[in-house]
Amino acid sequence: MSGIIKIENVTKIFGPHPTSVLEKIQAGASKSDILNETGHTVGVYDVSFEVNRGEIFVIMGLSGSGKSTLIRCLNLLNQPTEGRILIDGEDIVRYSGKELQRFRQNKVAMVFQHFGILTHRTVEENVVYGLEVKGIPKEERKQTARETLATVGLEGWEEKMPGELSGGMLQRVGLARALANDPDILLMDEPFSALDPLIRREMQQELLDIQSKLKKTIVFITHDINEAFKLGDRVAVMKDGQVIQTGTPDEILNEPADPYIEDFVKDIDRSKVLKAVQVMSKSLAAVSLSEGVQAAVKEMESRKLTNMFVVDDDQKLQGVVTIDDAIRAREENKDLPEIVHQDYFTAKPEEILQELIPKAAESPFPVAVTDETEKLLGVVRQTSILAGLT
Amino acid sequence: MEAAVDYLTNHFQGVFDALKIAVLTFLYNMQLFMEWIPWWVVILTVFLLGWRLVRLTAGITFAALLFLIGTFGYWDMMMYTMAIVLTSVVISLLLGIPVGILLAYSKKTEAVVKPLLDAMQTMPSFVYLIPAIMLFGLGKVSALFATVIYAIPPVIRLTNLAIREVSKDMIEAALSFGSSRRQLLRKVQIPQALPTIMAGINQTTMMALAMVVIASLVGAKGLGMEVLISINRVDINQGFEAGLSIVIMAIIIDRLTQGIANRYNYKKE
């Protein structure tokens, strides 16, 4: 993993003479004092962080915290007042007009909160806008448009005008337009905030699906902590123009660096953040087929369990046995395969608790956590779900 | 003011003469075309345009009204007036749209030009006939000059307004994909501004038409001249017929240009 984006001490001040205000803020004046005295707004102050290649980096903060200002520095829609922004080792702040144009055409693409769709162009013409600006020939543009529209689930809408589309579809067009350019970095400025909750959830899932295929570097802005923790590999929390904590969702959830973040975290619905892999127990795993009934009974008795998963020698899940069945089988000399139950639920490690709850409630057995090859990774018991939620 | 005009005539006579020749050539060809085109082609075209751009009944009405002008015996006069109006509209657009775009880009230019536009619109139009005559002499070119001055403000104002009102989101989006200034203007700002610019073109055309009577004071022939003559002769019939013809032209041009403007009115976000 290497830092594709490196931000060093970036400050952005809005107003007629931004550099004159720089000293004041370095001397420790507060944002509101500066606004009252000089009429300048401090958007972002002294922010530094790194974004790794291929990760989703979420910047979270309430409105006015400077997150949109910051993301606009990454493609110089806002020129930082001070600081360096290194992308692939090059300081983009120093770019000339032509270099900046080339950089925007090739390296970054942005998705906007209010979509920024050009209403005088058809869906397809919107998607190819970036390619058109680059001077890609028409046939190739058409081809790319069809492919990217298919990626975002809008095949067949090429010739429609934006006025005929719903908000969710418009944002799909916005996403397709950004993807069509095949940028290294995708900047997403609250892309789902203007959508209704159902569509938002759908789009979040789709973004994750697309990301698992394309592996772009994504900088994602949101004010919604649930969204931040769902999407982010790492999250930076902003307040008053500064980043006050950076870390994985887990780190922020468990060790909030600041009372402000604690407050934030309180609101979070943990069932939407915690994943199966975080609450499952590995030690209680399973008995293997070759060990037989005798071993199963012993395991369960010693651990005071009423049931247990059964795996083969490759750790592949075969079923679940109850202690009553196992004791009876021992008396009747039956073998494990004859008494396993198949009516249990499985879950993928990255499944969130919210999805596990109905599974755990419906079945008398715990939920088995498996990987793609059906290997048993761990077990989520009803009690561990409750423990995770509090 | 007089000194300024004197200075201009003394030092830049060549420029004004060249300008005069260019404009005259354009107008002359326009007139030739208007005289050459058969009357039934005009009526048919107006009918088709009216049908397509407005609706069928409008097309029929426009055709009938045009026919009425023909029965007044004013067909040639109308075509002549049309040539002058069209020429001044073309000149107004060629100057006005770029100036409007320039204003949208620069606050300073706007601060200078806006009062000028106010003056052009409020100054009684007879007043700038005088310097026009001094610069271009009596005749069609002076009439055109006065008409352009009178008719150009709406297209400048509305172009300026339209470019300024293009949504910030779209401009940001276009910039974020690395558009150059030219691409931004051509692919985003002008297409987005077009409905409003079309409204400006409509206004400009109407104002150019409103000038035809005044323009005839400095020697432009056509329907305006007919009105002027009838005033001098106190001829109610002739005055009424010529006046009515102008009104008919105005209505038809207005509805047709509005129809075009509506075509560009795609739903905004």
UniProtKB/TrEMBL annotation, chain A:
Against InterPro entries, the record matches this protein to: AAA+_ATPase, ABC_osmolyte_uptake_ATP-bind, ABC_transporter-like_ATP-bd, ABC_transporter-like_CS, CBS_dom, CBS_dom_sf, Gly-betaine_transp_ATP-bd, P-loop_NTPase
- Can you tell me which family this protein belongs to? Belongs to the ABC transporter superfamily.
Q: Where in the cell is it found?
A: Cell inner membrane
Q: Please state what the protein is called.
A: Quaternary amine transport ATP-binding protein
Q: Where is the CBS domain?
A: 280-336
Reactions catalysed according to its record: a quaternary ammonium(out) + ATP + H2O = a quaternary ammonium(in) + ADP + phosphate + H(+)
The record's note on quaternary structure and interaction partners says: The complex is probably composed of two ATP-binding proteins, two transmembrane proteins and a solute-binding protein.
The ABC transporter domain sits at: 5-265
- Pfam families named in the record: ABC_tran (PF00005), CBS (PF00571)
Q: How does it sit in the membrane?
A: Peripheral membrane protein
Task: Tell me the superkingdom of the source.
Answer: Bacteria
Keywords of this entry: Amino-acid transport, ATP-binding, CBS domain, Cell inner membrane, Cell membrane, Membrane, Nucleotide-binding, Transport
One GO term describing the cellular component: plasma membrane
Molecular function terms from GO:
ABC-type quaternary ammonium compound transporting activity; ATP binding; ATP hydrolysis activity
Species of origin reads Melghirimyces profundicolus
**EC annotation?**
7.6.2.9
Chief location category: membrane
**A biological process from GO:** response to osmotic stress
From TrEMBL, chain B:
Report the principal subcellular site: membrane
Entries under CDD domains matching the protein: TM_PBP2
Query: What biological processes does GO assign it?
Result: choline transport; glycine betaine transport
Presence of keyword Secreted:
no
Q: Which domain of life is it from?
A: Bacteria
Q: Where in the cell is it found?
A: Cell membrane; Membrane
TM spans (from-to): 26-49, 56-75, 81-105, 126-152, 204-223
What keywords appear on the UniProt entry? Answer: Cell membrane, Membrane, Transmembrane, Transmembrane helix, Transport
GO MF annotations, alphabetized: amine transmembrane transporter activity; carnitine transmembrane transporter activity
Q: What is this protein called?
A: Glycine betaine/proline transport system permease protein
